[in-house]
Write the structure tokens for this entry.
Amino acid sequence: RLLASQGWLQREILKDGEEIDFKLTDKGRTALALAHHYDLFCQYIPTLIKIDHYLFDSGVQEKEFSSLIIKLKKLSNKHRDSQTPAWEITRHIEGLLAGPILVTLGMSEFFTDIMEKRDAIDNKIMDDFPFIKSVIDFFTMLKWVENKRFTNEGQFFLKRAVAYGVTVSYLPTFMQSAELLFGNPNKLWKRTSEGLETHVNRRMNVWGSGGAHALYFRKIDEIVIDLFNQPLNNQPVG
């Protein structure tokens, strides 16, 4: 379904849903030939899983991340606005890197005051946290930051970081894709000696799902309060 949503596979349901026929599309054939573009960035997933440990560590000079951004920029410039599978792949890679960073910044509320006041990002922040400086360079490439200030587009994404929470929380599962697809998937459900799940960051998952449902619950509250503020005869029975 994931590949079909990208137009790389065609799914046809047969025999009243008992069978499904899959066909690789021309677009999918081209994309698979370019799959090697993902390799370098997917090797970075273990770091992305623990990105909260690196973003705010003053002792970390994350040269590897800066190197990835340079490679991504070259790839993006090469296929800019081409609307080809190669262009889509660069967008996927951007999401792979941006998603965990957005969620970590959202959970920590690190830039909340700066965005609300529309202040420039203090140089001291970038001096104290070298990884944050690399992130700002990345956001500048995405046009989320301009002249050390968040653009409207950048604010749009940062304010919606919670929407990425659930997806990013399953990065530990994606890191074990080979085992999941071709090995023993039951290994994913093992817990650590402390009883923690190994296939999901549960704290992040709860944060993401809670935030995603916040609007729904708020609307339900409004409906319930409105109903029970009505005269007694107009309130629901039971």
Notes: The chain has 15 helices and four strands. The two ends are 43 Å apart (CA to CA).
